[in-house]
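INFO  loader      accepted 1 record
INFO  loader      residues=562
INFO  predictor   begin
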Amino acid sequence: MKKHALLIGPNTYPRLGDLRYAAQDAEAVGEMLMQHYDFSSREVTLMTCKTRGIWYATQNNIEDQLARLREIDDLDLLVVGFWGHGISVPGGAECRRYLCAVDTSDQRLEKTGISLLALREYVEQAGAKNTCLILDCCQNHAVGRGITQLSKEDRDILADILPKENPLLRKAVVLNSCSFGERAYEWQEREHGIFTAHLLDAMRQSSRITDWIEYIQPRVHETARNMGHSQNPFANFEGGDIYFPTSETSKPVRESLLAEAEAMVAEAEKKQAEASRIIADAEQERIRIIAEAKREADAIKAKKYPVIQPKAKAEKQAGKRKVITINGVECPFRWCPPGTFMMGSPEDEKDRLNNETQHQVTLTRGFWMLETPVTQEMYRSVMGKNPSYFQGDKLPVEKVSWEDCQEFIAELNKSAPSGYKFVLPTEAQWEYACRAGTTTPYHFGSTLNGDQANCNGNYPYGTATKGKYLQTTSEVGSYPANAWGLYDMHGNVYEWCSDWYSGYPNGDVTDLVGPSTSSFRVLRGGCWCDLARTCRSAYRYYVVPSFRLSFIGLRLSLVREK
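INFO  predictor   done
INFO  writer      dumping tokens
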């Protein structure tokens, strides 16, 4: 069984007031999963005020780890837990309810908190067969965890965490520490939250979630009542109960799971047999078509026709350089000619994901692409501000959302060359330009360890040799360019594309663009803090358009107006 747990429990809140036991709650649940439920240490990600680096429980880090859940293919069981402050702002709109990270400010919730709506989208996109969401938050921090109560609208969002029409998911359960209008409290004697203390007891006794909630509800109510409070946990079930894997699972449960697995295997074998028949028929048809085409070709060769050589239209050479000066800043672009390439990754490429299905794409129009990511100097010259976390004129601008990019481009187009406009590249244009005629995982070959591009060299690709990890962005153009003169196509910062995200179409495509609408926008290229495998030419990253992080930037294309 493939499983993963993301457990978040910050104690330290500089702007909201510290908690005592949130981190201990998250750690204890993680230990429970490893000791009693066959989770390995690699399958449990812990984020608290004690963990460091990308696991420190800031808003950016938490949303990044939530977004990465979708990278785990064929996930059978997903557990996401949050212990800490929660804020519900009156007004009824879904985006006004938040979970609080270490750096959350109640004055800037939309930019520093994690909305329940965003949490729902991340969990949906993970696509796990079974999902358990644990929330021990949303209460008054003077006596419990949070700022305000969990509202009825909050509960409705949680109840809909995995919509019934979602075909990717089978079962989901949301466990919440209190009902709407209530608060959750910490229990000094147990050094845990009341809810989590009893949850841990329940997890020791049963592997079935319905047993947990039946055990928890009366005991949490009684413990809180003895303290002079009211606290009543609730649960929402979608698709049925969930059993956690354990060596102590009862025989009837094992038999039920085995029967389900055998049925799935039988269905898969049936589909495989049908697929084999279709492939055999297709092969016979292919042989017939090839033979017929050969006969026709031989007949044509037997005839003699006068050869007329058409006058070829001169095409600009790939990589030709054009420099455009914008507000005193020189911005070099490189020419990417029309052409055909294989987009995505071959099935034998190491660490490829299911959304990288290889297919042929033809681009009928050439375009100019900025030689480097947009620098902070360029961005500031247009927008009059610099949002970047790492500061430097020649560093790539970062912490820009997709919407920020559109505002930047709108200003930029007021002074665009006549007949042209600046745009974000499509996802197909980006990969075409990145590859520059190559078919390997990177334009420079099949290995990366942080020496050839700015990434986390502690996690190399195609080699066991670890390389550099700078832990920051680098000046654009610090690493060798590809064959068309484009720098930093791998690593440094992720680059926004114009497309909405979706799965690739079947078959060959001309001038591929994404769907007209979706929930996520596409990012490409990998970044300074990510693993080398995510910097591959074919790797696809996607987040909500409002996402701003210190590893997200942009690169411009210049195209003719239609």
